[in-house]
């Protein structure tokens, strides 16, 4: 594949760091986005000269605009940044504030960053957008009542994926959501899947050929039901 420029949100640890590392290994330039300057800089330093740091808070309009102005257009966007704030809380007790805070990052953050960088992809006639979703947001799998805010946010993210894909059909831009499964990160330390293993499927979706899936929910490089 022709070397591209990729933006990975939440690139400073866990799955975002693993995705950044794999994209670099495949010859791409990676913009390592993190909420703090120190985290973004340290991540880029660790990854090497083709890693470019940027401060980006996906929940803040001004931060996203500033990041876009700073780094310019990208070819690949991996919307990885996410939060889990309500583990173990039943839906009839979850605080609406936690739901709103979770939606602000997991759903609206991904939409906000996509809206910033998608026009440049459309202008150039090529782009890949990958949403990091979850089985907890899939009606086919069964929404998880133990993390209601997280599940709501991922179900909504799946809807964002479908809508953006419909709006970009036949444009050269492919928009898909990936369910990486339960990945061992700070958010889920007891999970068994290694971040590097999960990153392989995410990078596959981020570097699809033009004939690849569009508007799909992907698990293990296969379409699954929403």
UniProtKB/TrEMBL annotation:
Keywords for this entry? Oxidoreductase
Q: Where's the Ketoreductase domain?
A: 4-186
Q: 4Fe-4S: present as a keyword of the record? A: no
Mention one GO molecular function.
Answer: oxidoreductase activity
**Please, which domain of life does this record's source organism belong to?**
Bacteria
In terms of PANTHER family, this protein maps to: 5-KETO-D-GLUCONATE 5-REDUCTASE, ALCOHOL DEHYDROGENASE, PUTATIVE (AFU_ORTHOLOGUE AFUA_3G03445)-RELATED
Recorded family membership: Belongs to the short-chain dehydrogenases/reductases (SDR) family.
Supply the name of the protein: SDR family NAD(P)-dependent oxidoreductase
Question: Can you name the source organism?
Answer: Streptomyces morookaense
């Amino acid at each position: 594949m022709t070397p591209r420029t990729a933006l990975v949100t939440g690139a400073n640890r866990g799955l975002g760091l693993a995705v950044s590392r794999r994209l670099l290994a495949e010859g791409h330039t990676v913009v390592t986005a993190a909420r703090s300057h120190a985290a973004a800089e340290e991540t880029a330093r660790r990854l090497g000269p083709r890693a470019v740091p940027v401060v980006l808070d996906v929940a803040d309009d001004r931060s996203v605009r500033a990041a876009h102005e700073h780094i310019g257009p990208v070819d690949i966007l991996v919307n990885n940044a996410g939060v889990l704030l309500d583990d173990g809380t039943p839906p009839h007790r979850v605080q609406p504030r936690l739901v709103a805070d979770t939606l602000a990052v997991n759903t609206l953050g991904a939409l906000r960053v996509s809206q910033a960088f998608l026009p440049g992809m459309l202008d150039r006639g090529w782009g890949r957008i990958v949403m990091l979703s979850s089985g907890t947001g899939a009606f086919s799998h069964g929404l998880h009542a133990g993390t209601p805010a997280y599940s709501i946010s991922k179900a909504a993210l799946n809807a964002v994926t479908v809508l953006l894909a419909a709006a970009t059909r036949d444009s050269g831009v492919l928009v898909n959501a990936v369910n990486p499964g339960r990945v061992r990160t700070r958010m889920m330390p007891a999970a068994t899947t290694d971040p590097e293993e999960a990153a392989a499927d995410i990078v596959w979706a981020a570097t699809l050929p033009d004939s690849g899936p569009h508007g799909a929910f992907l698990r293990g490089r296969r379409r699954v039901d929403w």
